[in-house]
Amino acid sequence: MEETAASAEEMSATSQDIETAVQSIAQKSQEGATQAGGDK
């Protein structure tokens, strides 16, 4: 049971990291698009 719990915790942390990274990338690309093409 301990291994399963640890794996679930790690997976949760990993998907949280991925979600954070995706949001960060999306924000940066949105900012880049705004700077490049002005407000749309």
TrEMBL record:
Biased composition (Low complexity): 1-15
Sequence segments annotated as region (Disordered): 1-40
Bias-annotated ranges (Polar residues): 16-33
Top-level lineage group: Bacteria
The name this protein goes by in its record: Methyl-accepting chemotaxis protein
Source organism of this protein record: Clostridium sporogenes
Lineage of the organism: Bacteria, Bacillati, Bacillota, Clostridia, Eubacteriales
